[in-house]
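dumping this here before i forget
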Amino acid sequence: MGEGWTRSSALTEVNRNILLHVHDVDYGELEWEFFCECGHDLCHEQIFLTLDAFIAIRDRGDVVLAEGHRLSQVDRARRLREDAEGLRAQAKHQVARTKKNIG
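structure:
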């Protein structure tokens, strides 16, 4: 399980980097090749999406998955926990920053 999670996280990061590199040259019309983020060891599927479609998937909090692929409930729970921890850290940072600015 842990190895699958690591693979899924790595593919998510690869997809984010694809977005960052092509965002300035594409206006949402071209299809780009993204990787399935299911995390299964034997999965090497690639999905063609426009940047708008990719961003919509991310905005919903979903992952890029090939047709018929699923993220396990365990991996989904881990992602949600990681996202929650990130949000808590951001909130803590903002509170500290606000306190510093207020004096």
